[in-house]
Amino acid sequence: MQKVGFFKSIHVKIVLVYILLIILAMEIIGIYFARELEQTLKASFTKSIEERVDLVEFSVREEIIKKRGEEDPTLEQSLRSVLFSIRSEDINEISVIDPNFRILATSETTNQSIVGQRSTDAMVRRSISSETPDNKISLKKGDRIWVLTSPIIDQGEVLGTIYLESNIETVFEQMNQINRILAGGTAMSLAITIILGILIAQTITRPISDMRRQAQAMAKGNFSRKVRVYGNDEIGQLAIAFNHLTNRLQEAQSTTEGERRKLASVLSNMTDGVIATDRKGRIILINDPALRLLRVSRELVLHRPISSVLGIEAEYTFEDLIHMKESINLDFSSPERPYILRANFSVIQKETGFVNGLITVLHDNTEQEKIDMERREFVANVSHELRTPLTTMRSYLEALADGAWQDQELAPSFLNVTQTETERMIRLVNDLLQLSKMDSRSYDLNKEFVEFIKFFNRIIDRFEMSKSQQVHFQRLLPDSQFFVEIDADKLTQVIDNIISNALKYSPDGGNIRFGIIVQEGFLKVMVSDDGMGIPKENVERIFDRFYRVDRARARSMGGSGLGLAIAREMIEAHGGAIWAESEEGHGTTIFFTLPFELDEAGEWD
Ligand code: ATP
Ligand code: MG
Predict the structure, then answer these.
(1) What is the dihedral of CA 381, 382, 384, 388, to 10 degrees?
(2) How much distance in Å is there from the Cα of 461 to the middle of ligand 1?
(3) What per-residue confidence (pLDDT) applies to 341?
């Protein structure tokens, strides 16, 4: 926050106002007081001088009248003594002048030589000729003096005049002294005022700066501070209101914070992705699941247009998305992996209809899409598998109907083909029924404890006896007994399919090896052949329904591609696993495991 300039602060302003007020008051008082004092002092000074002049005039008049007419040399003597008697500090000189302007006497001891001389002073002459007293202030050797003349009149006759010089400078000195005292007082009161001003200003500014600091702290999110309340005046009330405001703000802030946290935790803990945009379609919020689903980082997508982040800018503008009613699928699939997201859009709108932004909810739809696709594929596969034998049968039946039934040689072979195709269809439908039962889990395993080596040998024996090819069987079976809890019929079906596959895809003169090993609570069974093998990329898929590596050839061998799918369902129902390892051109090995407990086997031993 900006710092308040020194001369702009209330503190200095208040002190300045106080000082100016005091100076103004002192000035007014000083001027008025000095003028009044000057007048009073001057008046009392002149009054006291005039009184003494009156006294001197009276005495001098008496002396002159007493000695009138006679040339009395003692007149000057007696006049001098009258003047000497009146001498004082404030009177510089007092002299008596006769009507002929001759100086009769003077009080100045050092100036007795002027006695007898004629006065040239204009005031003296004017006083004698005009018979009126006169006075003036004039300068003498740098000092101000008050000069006064007073004519001595007796019954209309001018006997002379009194000339007096008084030292009025003392009055002015007195004035200056008083003015100095006044100035000192002013300075003293100014000093006291400044101190008082600072103290008073502090009582006002301290709570204000407290509040300023508090506001600054609040801006930084610190609500724990409280403004001190110094009194119950307006500023105190303001401080109380300010503290109240702080409390309310803190409450409001914590509520918003709580709501924000709640929303954030909801957004990050939901499985669906949520993206919010501003009204221009730029992303302002994106939760973690959305980042995971889109496989992007937050820094990368924030403030970017939503349509480009979703990869649909070619098909849709932001306007289109706002008006989008149904959800759209975003296909991020790669050749190896399907990956499909479903996006739903809803608009953030004000009551006025003004669009404020867009909320997009993303959901991983890959599984659903995969299931849908598998279902479509399954239906297509089943129809295809059924159509092939049916078309074959139709053409043979047509030929029979067209007259071949009468042919002794063709008729039996044609009927034989239709019979084989019918059996194939029955087998297919049975396989499908079995798979559908397993899908709906509406089947029971008739489990019993079976000694597995014996069980396995019996199946291999059966194949060895009935085999039509020149294939050599190798049994790598341990010489002990293993009791496992299995549904013997179902497992016979599984092993039958594996062995028949091995036979089907093995050339004449090949080997088929059978092995069993015990491994960490499992019995691991393997059937290995030296046949044509399976291309690496298809090995995993042979357990899929209807999957055949080479459709045309497999069908000619009577396979529909359901055998291993059924085998996987059954082995998994027994708690085991089934997988294949194969090298194209060199052979295939099918492995499966069955859970097996040694202890129980021991009991049975
Ligand atoms: P079905 O068993 O329903 O009569 P099928 O034998 O063709 O038909 P599966 O047993 O499920 O079907 O086998 C699927 C595919 O896996 C086969 O079509 C074949 O292409 C391949 N396959 C299975 N076992 C072997 C093997 N030992 N050697 C080579 N390919 C094999
Ligand atoms: Mg098979």
Answers:
(1) 140
(2) 21
(3) 94
